[in-house]
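Subgroup meeting minutes
Present: P.N., E.W., G.H.
Scribe: E.W.

1. P.N. recapped why we're keeping a running log of single-chain structure predictions: easier to compare across weeks, and new members can see raw inputs and outputs side by side.
2. G.H. added today's entry (382 aa).
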Amino acid sequence: MKNAVHFGAGNIGRGFIGKLLADANVAVTFADVDEPLVDQISHKQEYKVKVVGSECSVDTVTHVTAVNSASPAVIEQIIKTDLVTTAVGPNVLDIIAKTIAQGIEKRFEAGNLKPLNIIACENMVRGTTHLKGEVYKYLNQKLHNQADMLIGFVDSAVDRIVPPAEAANDDPLEVTVESFSEWIVDEQQFKGEIPQISGMEKTDNLMAFVERKLFTLNTGHCITAYLGNLKGHQTIREAIEDPEIRAEVKQAMNESGEVLIRRYGFDKEFHAAYIEKILGRFANPFLVDEVDRVGRQPIRKLGQNDRLIKPLLGTIEYGVENKTLLKGIAAALKYTNDSDPQAVELQQSIQQQGIAPTLAHYTGLAADSAEVKQIEALFNQL
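Output recorded in log:
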C-alpha cells in the first residue's frame, strides 16, 4: 500500500483529496494544527463522507490517521511517504513550506532516494510551483540539485464544492461534498512513476484546465455571491435561483468563456454545456453554501491573476464583450462583511481613496482606464 501525507484535515482535505487517495488504497496521514481534529482522526482512523448529487450516499473513508503539522511527527512521515498533497488554502502554503523543506532534508539524510511528488491542491494558478519556490527558500542550497532530480512539484487544478457542514449525527468528522469532482495534474512534472489514482486525471496542457475552472466555476461562484449579497440572499442556491442573478452569472461565464474558446480552442457547444453543468451545481438542493463563505476575501479574489480580473484581462486582450464581468467586479467592491478583514480593508480603501485608486491598487488595472471608469459607473448604479 502506498502512503501519502496530506496537509489540511478540514472539510476539503477529508471530503475531496483525502477521500480520493484513500479510495485508491493509499494510506493517508493528515497533518493539521487542529489538535482535537487530529486526535479524533488518529483515534477513529475512519470518517464518513456524504456525497450529494441527484441522490445521496454515505461513504466510509478508511486507512487514515493524523499528526499535528507543527510536531516532529510530520517530518517522520515525510521521510518515508510516497506522496505529499495539500488542501490548506493559498495563504497557508507559505507556512507549511518550511516543514516540507525539513522533511525533504531528513528524507535525504535517512538515505531515502526514492522519488517524492508534492501536489498542492489549492484554488490558485500553479500553486505547487509557488510552493516549490517557498520550500527552496528553506531547503539547504547544497540539496537543491538533488531535490531537482528526486522531488516532483506537480501543479494541479481542483474542483469540488465542499461547504462547511454542521456536525451530522454528532459526528464532527462527517463531511458533505457534491458528487462532481475534478482533479487534473500536470503529468510532465512528476518524478518517477505517476501514481494511478482514480479521479486524478493527467494532462500535458494543465493551464487550459486551470483557466477553464478559474474562469467558469470560480468566476461564476463569486459573482453569484456578490450579486446575491446585494439582494439579501443568504445562500448560493437562493441567489442562483433568482432569475435575474442566474441570467447575469451565465452571461459573465459566457464572456469569460469566449476568452477560453479563443485561447485554447475549446469547442463552443461543449463549453456551453460545461457552463450549464456548473449552474446546476450551484443550485444543488443538498448543498447549503453561504454567500458569505464564497464571497469572503474579496481582495484576493480581485487579484490580477484571480477569478475576476484575469478573465477581464482576457476579454481586453481579445477585444470581446465584458460588461457583465465589469458588473461582477463592481458588486465585489460593494461586498461588506464585518467579520472578514479583507472586506473591511476594501471598504476602508474605497471610503478613503475612492473607487479608481482602490481598483488600481488591488487589481493592477490602470486608474484612468476605460474599464475602471465603467466599473465605477456600475458601482454607483448598484
